[in-house]
């Protein structure tokens, strides 16, 4: 049986996949790795125009009227699925949420037959979350030319819209990324959020990127080049401007040499006492869902340094920007925009 590492090696050895069309416009969004900084900045700038306070009416447009977006999630999700759906609707698109457990995938239909079946009902974009590495790319290589594929989280490899919303949230508080120290703490080995953070902050030029984890939760040595590695949370978050806590991903571990619950919190949890080691104006991110009192104390998650709910708000805006960008790119190419 293929292991996680085999899959990673296989993907590393695959020729790179071009997510841009022949004119350099975004066609698919499967990974932030290698995406030009200009493209990332354009998406973030566009997303910012869609950000509203939560007590205001949400931003809406008719940019995608007549378009249809299909959400195909084979792993659980609250934030990503809800925000992709709201993003599509707020742009005027129709949304199809395929209930995988009630779909013909359960009768053995292949992913490609499912995609081609839905494509025959007129889809403009597929939003895919899947535990298997390579599925998003495989689908992207097999959809019709007018259709885009967006990753909503792929195995431990990539969560590109999460990377974008994390970048937007940090920039809203601290726009000079080159001056910042960002500490990513916790289960980095199994985290697509950490990998997408590495991709986006490498492209945008963060001052210092630290990865902070017990040995069993560190990625392989060839992964995340340029990041500084720390094996103690106290050293890793000292003087940090931004701390990104990660969820322990038991579902991706066959077996890991890490302490359980209370012991993990004692050694690796972000408490108020530990937070005082960082800069006074530090901000704290967490992609959610959180394991409270395991990787983060509730008093920190709900405290004055936390921007966790702002991340969620920004998620809708980022997904609006991405959907609008890929679908209007295809429409421009077909001369119907
Ligand atoms: N951050 C994130 O991907 O959350 P969900 O699993 O709830 O979508």
SSE topology:
Layout: H1 4-13, H2 37-49, E1 68-73, H3 79-90, E2 94-98, H4 111-119, E3 125-130, H5 135-140, E4 148-154, H6 160-173, E5 181-185, H7 192-204, E6 208-212, E7 228-230, H8 233-237, E8 242-245, H9 261-268, H10 272-275, E9 283-285, H11 298-301, H12 308-334
Parallel strand pairs: 1-2, 1-3, 3-4, 5-6, 5-8, 6-7, 8-9
Helix pairs in contact: 2-6, 2-12, 3-12, 6-7, 6-12
The structure holds phosphoric acid mono(formamide)ester.
Key terms:
single chain; 337 residues; alpha/beta; Rossmann fold; 5-stranded parallel sheet; 4-stranded parallel sheet; 9 strands; globular; disordered N terminus; binds phosphoric acid mono(formamide)ester
Could you walk me through the main structural features you see in this protein, from its secondary elements to its overall organization?
The chain is an alpha/beta fold. It has 2 domains: 4-155 and 314-336, Rossmann fold; 160-306, Rossmann fold. 37% of the residues lie in helices and 13% in strands. It is built from 12 helices and 9 strands. It has helices at 4-13, 37-49, 79-90, 111-119, 135-140, 160-173, 192-204, 233-237, 261-268, 272-275, 298-301, 308-334; strands spanning 68-73, 94-98, 125-130, 148-154, 181-185, 208-212, 228-230, 242-245, 283-285. It has a 5-stranded parallel β-sheet. The chain has a 4-stranded parallel β-sheet with strand order 2-1-3-4. The chain starts with a helix and ends with a helix. The structure holds phosphoric acid mono(formamide)ester. Residues 77-80, 153, 162, 287-289 line the site of phosphoric acid mono(formamide)ester (CP).
């Amino acid at each position: 049986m293929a292991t996680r590492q085999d899959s990673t090696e296989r993907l590393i050895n695959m020729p790179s996949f071009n997510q841009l069309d022949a004119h350099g416009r975004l066609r698919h969004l499967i990974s932030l790795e290698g995406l030009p900084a200009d493209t990332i900045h354009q998406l973030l700038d566009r997303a910012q125009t869609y950000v509203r306070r939560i007590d205001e009416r949400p931003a809406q447009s008719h940019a995608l009227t007549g378009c249809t977006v299909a959400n195909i999630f084979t792993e659980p999700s609250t934030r990503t699925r809800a925000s992709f759906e709201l993003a599509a609707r707020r742009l005027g698109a129709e949304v199809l949420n395929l209930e995988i457990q009630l779909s013909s995938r359960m009768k053995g239909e292949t992913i490609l037959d499912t995609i081609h079946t839905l494509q025959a009902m007129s889809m403009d974009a597929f939003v895919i979350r899947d535990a298997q590495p390579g599925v998003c790319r495989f689908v992207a290589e097999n959809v019709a030319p007018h259709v885009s594929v967006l990753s909503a989280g792929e195995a431990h490899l990539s969560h590109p819209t999460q990377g974008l919303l994390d970048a937007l949230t940090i920039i809203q508080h601290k726009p000079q990324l080159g001056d910042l120290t960002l500490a990513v703490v916790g289960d980095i080995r199994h985290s697509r959020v950490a990998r997408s953070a590495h991709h986006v902050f490498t492209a945008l030029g963060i001052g210092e990127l630290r990865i902070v984890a017990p040995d069993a939760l560190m990625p392989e040595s060839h992964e995340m080049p340029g990041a500084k590695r720390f094996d103690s949370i106290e050293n890793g978050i000292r003087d940090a401007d931004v701390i990104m806590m990660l969820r322990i991903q038991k579902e991706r571990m066959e077996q890991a040499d890490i302490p359980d619950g209370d012991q993990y919190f004692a050694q690796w949890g972000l408490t108020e006492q530990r937070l005082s080691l960082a800069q006074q104006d530090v901000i704290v991110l967490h992609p959610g869902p959180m394991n409270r009192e395991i990787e983060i104390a509730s008093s920190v998650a709900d405290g004055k340094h936390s921007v966790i709910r702002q991340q969620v708000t920004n998620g809708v805006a980022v997904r609006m920007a991405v959907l609008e960008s890929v679908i209007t790119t295809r429409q421009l190419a077909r001369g119907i925009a």
